[in-house]
Design a protein that fits this description.
single chain, alpha/beta, TIM Barrel, nine-stranded mixed sheet, three-stranded antiparallel sheet, 17 helices, binds iron/sulfur cluster
Length: about 425
């Protein structure tokens, strides 16, 4: 990897483009494009992120290390069962690899009953042991913000229980359902929207509940799309998952199955060749995953995403916008461009919802819009997700789009492009 030098033509070009970003902001202000100017001004990094991806940015990946597990043989390290068995669950476990702050210690104790902590050695090894602001650490180790309940926080922020006709099924939209098949995950994300039940083994889906969910889907011919979710369905054994997917496939009106899993991020070893072959029997099957930062973009994760794509298991990424993790356009952009290279399509950028105990992760909507404005243009639309707010209480996903339209009447629409240049188009 070579940093551009001052006599490097690449550096000269970047400097020129930085000037053009600054002049574009000035142009927005002088021409009275208040929304655009504000969106540019929210985050200086949004402007930096407008620079084209050069070779340096393109090659930035998270590097997996083995931390204290350096002597663990490859065969064990790459065995997902070993990873599951050796998860870190206690303060003592974590302190073997991370210098915890007093606040983190208090938060681990304070959240133990409500939402457990667990990390695979693989994901834990991505943490910077000395940096409390490490974006991987922020997603996996509790902080005291989790103990705060803000006015307006909701235990079920998306109204998933409200739209639950039978236990384990949320049927909110006409043609699709969410099917919760487990409440376990390899790593418990501190920003999880389902803290009310995920990580609680007593709330796991029983055999009868799964049968009830399948019966509901079979009895509703309007359901053509099933999102198999949880928890993380990849915590089930291959045999169990195979049976479940086969049962769904046997329902004639189920056209599409989507598997919602964070295992490509937290335990990519879970996708063995045999597992991927089993999944590929149930096409059309899509995989929805959840990368939030380029530090999670490791060689192991790349191998998994590519292996899934090779078997036609198209992946889509559902990133959550999180303060202190990825609330900079450059982070979102690098992560998304990397995902595209692994044939995983950036699909959604979610505004963090109103789940209790995650208020410290929330990013102002205006900053989210600034990130979206900085993404559109410099990189392919393939790398630009849809920014959405999942409406509190179960209203569904509402797209949030930067304001490109300056005016609209019966004759014409006036708008600005990604560079702030003004254009007109006939209204009819
Ligand atoms: S993997 Fe998904 S369900 Fe599990 S803790 Fe993370 S966000 Fe929640």
């Amino acid at each position: 990897m070579t940093e551009p030098t001052s006599d490097d033509p690449c550096a000269t070009r970047i400097a020129g483009e930085q000037r053009s970003v600054a002049s574009r902001h000035a142009q927005f202000v002088s021409e009275g494009h208040e929304v655009a100017a504000r969106e540019f001004a929210v985050s200086p990094s949004a402007a930096v992120a407008e620079l084209p991806l050069g070779p340096v940015a393109r090659d930035v990946l998270g590097q997996s290390s083995r931390s204290i597990w350096a002597d663990v043989p490859d065969a064990l390290w790459n065995d997902w069962r070993w990873q599951q068995r050796n998860r870190l669950r206690t303060i003592a476990d974590i302190e073997a690899i991370v210098r915890l702050t007093e606040g983190e210690r208090r938060a681990i104790e304070g959240t133990a009953d409500a939402f457990r902590m667990a990390l695979t050695p693989y994901y834990a090894a991505l943490i910077d042991p000395d940096d409390p602001a490490c974006p991987v650490r922020a997603q996996a180790i509790p902080v005291e913000g989790e103990l705060v309940r803000q006015p307006g926080d909701l235990d079920d922020p998306l109204g998933e229980e409200r739209f639950m006709p039978v236990p384990g099924i949320t049927h909110r939209y006409p043609d699709r359902v969410l099917f919760y098949v487990t409440h376990n995950c390899p790593v418990y994300c501190r920003h999880c929207t389902r803290k009310r039940k995920v990580s609680d083994p007593t709330s796991a889906a029983a055999h009868d509940q799964l049968a009830g969910g399948l019966a509901y889907i079979a009895a509703h011919p309007e359901v053509r799309d099933v999102l198999v979710s949880g928890g993380d369905p990849m915590t089930l054994s291959d045999d169990r998952l195979d049976q479940l997917l086969a049962a769904l496939r046997a329902i004639p009106h189920v056209e599409v199955i989507r598997l919602c899993t964070r295992n490509p991020v937290t335990l990519p070893q879970r996708f063995t060749d045999a597992t991927i072959a089993m999944l590929a029997k149930h096409h059309p099957l899509f995989v929805h995953t959840h990368f939030n930062h380029w530090k999670e973009c490791t060689p192991e994760a790349a191998r998994t995403l590519r292996a899934l794509a090779d078997r036609g298991l198209n992946c889509a990424n559902q990133m959550v916008l999180l303060k202190g993790v990825n609330d900079e356009a450059d982070i979102v952009r690098r992560t998304n461009v990397w995902l595209l290279r692994q044939r995983c399509r950036p699909y959604y950028l979610f505004q963090a919802d109103l789940a209790t105990g995650i208020s410290h992760f929330r990013v102002p909507v205006e900053k989210g819009l600034a990130i979206m404005r900085a993404l559109r243009g410099p990189v392919s639309g393939m790398a630009v997700p849809t920014y959405v707010i999942d409406a509190p209480g179960g209203g569904g996903k509402i797209p949030m789009v930067p304001d490109y339209v300056e005016s609209r009447d019966d004759e014409k629409v006036v708008f600005t492009n990604w560079q702030g240049d003004r254009y007109e188009y006939p209204a009819r």
